[in-house]
Design brief:
Layout (H helix, E strand, L loop, with lengths): L4 E9 L5 E10 L4 E5 L6 H8 L7 E6 L2 E2 L5 H8 L2 E5 L10 H6 L8 H6 L4 H13 L15 H14 L4 E5 L7 H18 L2 E5 L3 H7 L2 E6 L2 E6 L6 H8 L3 H5 L15
Parallel strand pairs: 3-8, 3-9, 6-7, 7-8
Antiparallel strand pairs: 1-2, 1-4, 4-5, 9-10
Helix pairs in contact: 5-6, 6-7
């Protein structure tokens, strides 16, 4: 089967001289749950943003569902981006709108101009949005303003919005970095169960090594823009962890967070 995503010798450097990705190659099959780990500045966020061309790459090719992402323009690029749902560390919700309206934004890529501008969603879309909120335990908040929710609830709305897109691939950029441990567990459990149920491939950037080991079917370890590990969680030994992070596993496990700064967008 054709992989849903393929990186073929992808490189990215920024004007400040930082080489964020250096000849990165890997493939992602349908239904995989992959954690990308590595210290701040290792290239995790750049890797995610290159997938649907939120940033341009300098070399190599990103293939998404059999199409070269960098070759797409205009309508073709918008149609390709429908296949990729995104979940952000800071939620990226419209706080003045209701929870349900935020979820329905996942359908905007499928709507014509005026319908999208005026939020003229079909009854089928509205029902699907409500069903997703019920699956996520948020049905009672459907008509509340998004600003009224806790952090963990906001991230659940972000998941519902991404799933509403009916994507083939879900990208999660530090989805639990702002959450307490209990909310973080809830979010990871939901991401795993909802993507598995729908056979959606999922790539999650994580600082928390223990979370990556627990939830992933596969782990990709980045260091200074290069892949230094790509395999199953049980294959990740202490020596490789030290190669990725430059420090021992014990130092990473204190508090469960390890290298817990957010990646700076310009070099991550």
């Amino acid at each position: 089967m054709e992989p849903i995503l393929r990186f073929d010798n992808v490189s990215k450097h920024y004007p400040n001289g930082v080489h964020a990705l250096k000849g990165v190659s890997f493939e992602v099959a349908e239904g995989e749950f992959i954690s990308v780990i590595g210290p701040s500045g290792s290239g995790k966020s750049t890797l995610l943003r290159a997938i649907n061309r939120l940033i341009p790459i300098n070399g190599g090719t990103v293939w998404l569902d059999g199409q070269a992402v960098s070759a797409q323009r205009g309508t073709a690029l918008r149609q390709l981006r429908r296949k990729v749902g995104m979940i952000f560390q800071n939620y990226n919700l419209v706080y003045s709108l209701s929870v349900l309206q935020n979820v329905l934004h996942g359908r905007l890529g499928y709507m014509g101009g005026l319908k999208g501008v005026f939020g003229l969603y079909s009854e089928e879309d509205k029902q699907e949005g409500l069903d997703l909120l019920k699956e996520l335990g948020l049905e009672e908040f459907a008509y509340n303003r998004a600003s009224d929710l806790s952090g963990g609830q906001k991230q659940r709305v972000g998941i519902a919005r991404a799933i509403m897109q009916q994507p083939k691939l879900l990208l999660c950029d530090e989805p639990i970095a702002s959450l307490d441990p209990s909310s973080a567990k809830t979010i990871m459990d939901l991401l795993k169960s909802m993507t598995q149920k729908r056979n959606i491939a999922c790539i999650v950037n994580l600082h928390q090594l223990d979370v990556a080991l627990k939830y992933s079917t596969r782990i990709i370890g980045l260091s200074k823009g290069e892949i230094v590990f790509d395999g199953r969680p049980e294959e990740l030994d202490d020596a490789t962890i030290e190669r990725i992070y430059g420090t021992s596993r014990e130092n990473l496990m204190i508090g469960g967070h390890g290298n817990d700064q957010a990646d700076p967008a310009h070099c991550a």
